[in-house]
Design brief:
93 residues, transmembrane helix
Length: 93
Amino acid sequence: MRTGSEPTTARSPLRLRLWLSVWGLIWAGTGTAAFALAARPGWAAACGVLLLIVTVDLVMVLRHIHQGPHYQPGRDVPPYEPDHGGTGRRPHR
């Protein structure tokens, strides 16, 4: 069941987000370790926070991929109004 007027062939960029998260996980982990070994605790903490954010994003992406192509938002997410060809702006008078 569709909840809006999205195209039936719409695709989600979850696979791209997955690989970008993996890439970020590698770099943030490497940065955390390198700055910790170089005795730079501020930069190591910054990379550690980034590592935490990337890990949470990776978990969410994997969760959405696991839900499959038939994932639908919950009942609390209303359908959106379709674009009727307008620009969304008032015409100038």
